[in-house]
Amino acid sequence: MIKEITKSQELLDRRKEAVANGVGVFNTATVKEAKGAIIIDADGNELIDFAGGIGVVNAGHCPEPVVAAIREQAGKYLHTSFNVVTYEPYIKLCEELVEILPHGKKTKAMLVSTGAEAVENAIKIARQATKRPAVICYTGAYHGRTMMAMTLTSKVSYKHDCGPFAPEVYRLPFPNFYRYRGTRDEATFVKDELKRLHESALNLVDVKSVAAVILEPIQGEGGFNPIPQKYLEGLRAFCDEHGIMLIMDEVQSGFCRTGHWASWQHYGVQPDISTYAKSMGSGLPIAAVVGRAEVMDAAAIGSIGGTYIGSPICCVAASATIKYMKDIDLSKKAIKIGNVIMNRIQNLMKLHPEIGDVRGIGAMIGIEFVLNGDPRQPNTEICSKIVKGCAENGLVLISAGTYKNVIRILSPLVITDEQLEKGLTILENEIKKAIKK
């Protein structure tokens, strides 16, 4: 009997024929429409979304106020370039961003299209503000795939044969307490890592030439690794001591995911510059660089920006997203969702040592799988089985981590209690099956 080819498979076959192989396939799900936390695939099947378009739809798929704002703006004008003809949606969004993400006494913002573009511009601003060339970044980091962003990104698989890379970039080990603590408690571990940071001024790069330190307070692709509180405080003090700009990349962790507009607000440690994208626009390509006004204004006229900076369509989508997030108190929902996920997975962890760690802040949760209970022995194989098994049973999720041994949960924050519980049950069942094999 000949097996009938599904519409989803037909779509994936067409993709293989027409789309460059280098465009990754993280999950084999398809979509013809989506709403809230549900994706309808090409065959009409309902899928629960735990990937959120890689953290892009915190406010859910197609939130009605956002769709309405897009439709209204599309009937007015689509593009003039903000450099050429000034329009109100760009200014309004910047006003909203500096209100919810204040950086000191006075804050300014600029808009671009993607997270990588935001990172590129943040580095240019920091260099101009300090008149210095060097940048320090971290292992496990992901900052994008344009040239400077790719240089800052740690994972080699995103950089094969793409060199030479940007100069004057120096990398420190990220203070990943779970993986590298050994027998140390957190206080001792942080003390040792801060010592390494200060020693970098002697053995890595001349601290007087360092323009910026850039990091994700909660690493995304790196495995959902939250930075220890005291380390971030120590890093802020180090930057202040040496006149270095502290840049925080909040592209994946921003816009209510951790229970705040930005995760640095959870830590209470303020950056000089920060970058945003993803859930800011509910799926439309928009990103922002936000920072202290005197730092942002250090950039020479014309040195930052581009043709598509702050598309008016994307600006109104972002403004509508921010209002919608406020109206339904999405940060509060993130805390509730995160607590439910943590409780379920921590209980499962007690029964299965293959789950080495479950961690995160708010609803940004990572589940790390290891061999023999050893943080230094990542279990990649089990993760791929879980992702595949969940896909076959109506749950879309993706992995993370240098070794792809971390399941990350980025469900839309508008997910219903019933959808969340059903999704977690599917995940738990697939974890148990993968462990038994």
Count of domains: 2
Order of helices and strands: HEEEHHHEHEHEHHEHEHEEHHHEEHEEEH
| The CATH C-level class name of the largest domain | Alpha Beta
Q: Please name the CATH architecture of the largest domain.
A: 3-Layer(aba) Sandwich
CATH fold name of the largest domain: Aspartate Aminotransferase, domain 2
Instruction: Report strand order across the widest sheet.
Output: 4-10-9-8-7-5-6
Round the Cα radius of gyration to an integer and report it: 22 Å
User: So how many helices?
Assistant: 15
Main β-sheet description: 7 strands, mixed
Globular, elongated, flat, extended or rod-shaped: what is the shape? globular
Structural class: alpha/beta
Helical content, roughly? 40-55%
Unreliable segments (pLDDT under 50, ≥5 consecutive)?
none
* The named CATH superfamily of the largest domain: Type I PLP-dependent aspartate aminotransferase-like (Major domain)
Give the N-terminus to C-terminus distance in angstroms: 30 Å
Please state roughly what percent of the residues sit in beta strands, choosing from under 5%, 5-15%, 15-25%, 25-35%, 35-45% or over 45%.
15-25%
**Overall pLDDT confidence:** 96
Number of strands: 15
Keywords: Aminotransferase, Pyridoxal phosphate, Transferase
Protein name: 4-aminobutyrate aminotransferase
InterPro entries: Aminotrans_3 (IPR005814), Aminotrans_3_PPA_site (IPR049704), Class-III_PLP-dep_AT (IPR050103), PyrdxlP-dep_Trfase (IPR015424), PyrdxlP-dep_Trfase_major (IPR015421), PyrdxlP-dep_Trfase_small (IPR015422)
GO molecular function, one term: identical protein binding
